Each structure stands twice: as structure tokens, then as C-alpha cells.
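Colleagues,

For the teaching module next term, I've prepared a clean inverse folding example: a structure given as C-alpha cells, and then the sequence designed for it. I'd like students to try predicting residues themselves before seeing the answer, so please don't circulate the second half yet.
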């Protein structure tokens, strides 16, 4: 989770936001869409105003979001035209490669694909609408909400847990029986095998 302490607020079209990670968990996006439906009835436009998206200004004055990718994707799917962006840094004077290196050094980019493999910066989608699904990211997010691990300041915590689950739980199981996949994931989360992961809560007492 990126701390929001930026230089200015700007309203930006969702379609023009550039992601800094390759994937999202579609199940997580669906959850965000459900929340949007609920909160829109209560708060309307104020919901957008209280859910600012942190970004940096990059080459060609494009806005690159560095957090809240699932929210941005959900709002895009809901037809929301623009959002409030809080600008963390103005890096538009940098060339493309130094720009991405800067983001990498600040843990503001996660260029790993749906198989957990690191890719070139050029492979990062150019729109939140083009981000493919990583079901392990959804599984990790659900694990955290269920108490499998604690919220942690380590960048990309859920992706780190998702990568740890890849060799242990088959993708087909996640897609066919999310409940069973969660049972296996929670068992792993409470084992000593997971003690190196951020937010690990320790083994169960039983």
C-alpha cells in the first residue's frame, strides 16, 4: 500500500491512467465493483472524492498509477469516466527507461506476469482495461481478509503471497473451487513454511 502524500490533486480520465503492474485479480475487481454499487447509493460522487488514486507523472505527461489498480479497473468496468489522482512525483522530464528504473527503485512498479515471471517494462499494459487476471492475487487478497496474514507495509504483499501459493495450489482448483483453494491456502499460511512472508501471523495453536 502506497502512502498518499502527494503534491497536488487532479481529475483524470480512467481510460488514460497507465498501470505500473501487469495483472490484477479479477475476483478482487468484482469485489470492488460490489463495493462501488453499495457506496454509490450512500455517498454518490463523494465516494470518488474519498478514494484518491496515487500516481506519478511520467513521460509524455501520462499519469502512471502506483496503487489501487483494482479500484481503477473496477471503476472503468462500471463506466466511471474520471477519478481524483494525487500526484506523488513529477517525473515527466525523464526518458522512458530511466523513468521505469526510478519507479523500480522506489518499489512503484511490479513487472511480473500472471505466471509470476518478471517481464520487460514494455510488457506492462498501457491501460487498466488491458490488465490480465492473476487468480493467485485474488486468492491472496481473500486470505488476508480471512486473517491468513496481516496487512503489511511491504510493497506488493498480496503478490508475494500469491507467488508462494503458485507451486502449492493448482490454478484449475482456484477457478473451479475457490473454497477448497482457500482451505489449502489458509493451511499453508498457518504453517512454518510461510514464516518468511510479509505479515505472517504464525502457526495455529491446534
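(Answer key — instructors only)
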Amino acid at each position: 500500500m502506497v502512502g498518499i502524500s502527494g503534491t497536488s490533486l487532479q481529475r483524470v480520465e480512467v481510460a488514460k491512467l497507465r498501470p505500473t503492474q501487469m495483472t490484477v485479480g479479477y475476483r478482487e475487481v468484482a469485489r470492488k465493483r460490489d463495493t462501488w454499487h453499495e457506496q454509490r447509493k450512500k455517498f454518490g460522487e463523494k465516494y470518488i472524492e474519498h478514494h484518491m488514486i496515487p500516481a506519478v507523472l511520467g513521460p509524455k505527461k501520462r499519469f502512471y498509477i502506483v496503487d489501487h489498480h483494482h479500484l481503477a479497473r473496477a471503476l472503468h468496468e462500471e463506466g466511471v469516466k474520471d477519478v481524483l489522482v494525487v500526484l506523488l512525483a513529477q517525473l515527466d522530464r525523464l526518458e522512458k527507461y530511466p523513468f521505469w528504473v526510478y519507479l523500480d527503485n522506489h518499489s512503484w512498479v511490479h513487472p511480473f506476469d500472471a505466471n509470476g515471471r518478471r517481464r520487460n517494462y514494455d510488457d506492462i499494459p498501457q491501460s487498466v482495461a488491458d490488465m490480465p487476471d492473476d487468480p493467485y492475487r485474488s486468492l491472496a487478497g481473500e486470505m488476508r481478509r480471512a486473517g491468513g496474514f496481516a496487512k503489511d507495509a511491504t510493497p506488493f504483499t498480496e503478490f508475494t503471497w500469491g507467488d508462494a501459493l503458485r507451486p502449492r495450489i493448482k490454478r484449475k482448483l482456484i477457478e473451479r473451487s475457490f473454497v477448497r483453494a482457500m482451505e489449502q491456502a489458509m493451511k499453508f499460511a498457518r504453517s512454518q513454511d510461510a514464516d518468511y512472508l510479509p505479515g505472517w501471523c504464525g502457526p495455529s495453536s491446534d
